[in-house]
C-alpha cells in the first residue's frame, strides 16, 4: 500500500490525491475540497500522534491490505488500536483528535492545552515557572501563557 491514493467518487470526474491512511472520514466521503478544514487536519494530527507512539515502525492501518478497506473502516468509525507505549490519558486525547464527527474534535489550542496538562500530571514535564495569579492559586507558565 502507498501513502497517497487516487480517490474517485461518483460525483467527480477528477481524481483527488489523498493520504488515505491519514485522512478524516469527511475527506474520504467528499472530494470537493469543502471538507478540508482545521478539523480534518486535527484528525490527521491524531493519526500522526498514533504514528509517533508507534515509533514510526509501521504505516497507520498496516495490518489492512487495501486502501479501500481502510476507507471502509474509517468511514464506519473504526479507529487505530492503541500503541503499547501510549498511556491512557494520551490515548484519550488521540481518540478525541480522531473523533468521527469534525465538530467533536478539539482545535489545536485545546490539543496543546490537553497534552501539556497531561504531561504535567504524569510528571513527563516539570513547570518552567510558577506564579501566583489573582485568586492566589498557582498558575504554570508555559511558552509565555498560563496553563
From TrEMBL:
Domain Protein kinase: residue ranges: 1-116
InterPro entries: Kinase-like_dom_sf (IPR011009), Non-receptor_tyrosine_kinases (IPR050198), Prot_kinase_dom (IPR000719), Ser-Thr/Tyr_kinase_cat_dom (IPR001245)
Keywords annotated in UniProt: ATP-binding, Nucleotide-binding
GO molecular function, one term: protein kinase activity
Signal peptide annotation: none
Pfam annotation, one family: PK_Tyr_Ser-Thr
PROSITE patterns from the UniProt entry: PROTEIN_KINASE_DOM
Stated name of the protein: Protein kinase domain-containing protein
Amino acid at each position: 500500500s502507498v501513502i497517497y491514493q487516487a480517490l474517485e467518487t461518483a460525483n467527480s470526474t477528477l481524481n483527488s490525491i489523498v493520504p488515505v491512511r491519514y485522512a478524516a472520514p469527511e475527506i474520504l466521503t467528499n472530494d470537493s475540497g469543502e471538507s478540508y478544514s482545521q478539523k480534518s487536519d486535527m484528525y490527521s494530527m491524531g493519526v500522526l500522534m498514533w504514528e509517533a507512539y508507534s515509533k514510526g515502525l509501521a504505516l497507520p492501518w498496516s495490518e489492512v491490505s487495501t486502501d479501500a478497506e481502510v476507507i471502509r473502516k474509517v468511514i464506519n468509525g473504526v479507529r487505530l488500536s492503541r500503541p503499547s507505549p501510549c498511556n491512557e490519558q494520551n490515548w484519550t486525547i488521540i481518540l478525541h483528535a480522531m473523533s468521527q464527527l469534525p465538530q467533536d474534535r478539539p482545535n489545536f489550542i485545546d490539543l496543546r492545552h490537553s497534552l501539556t496538562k497531561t504531561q504535567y500530571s504524569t510528571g513527563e514535564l516539570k513547570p518552567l515557572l510558577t506564579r501566583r495569579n489573582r485568586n492566589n492559586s498557582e498558575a504554570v507558565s508555559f511558552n509565555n501563557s498560563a496553563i
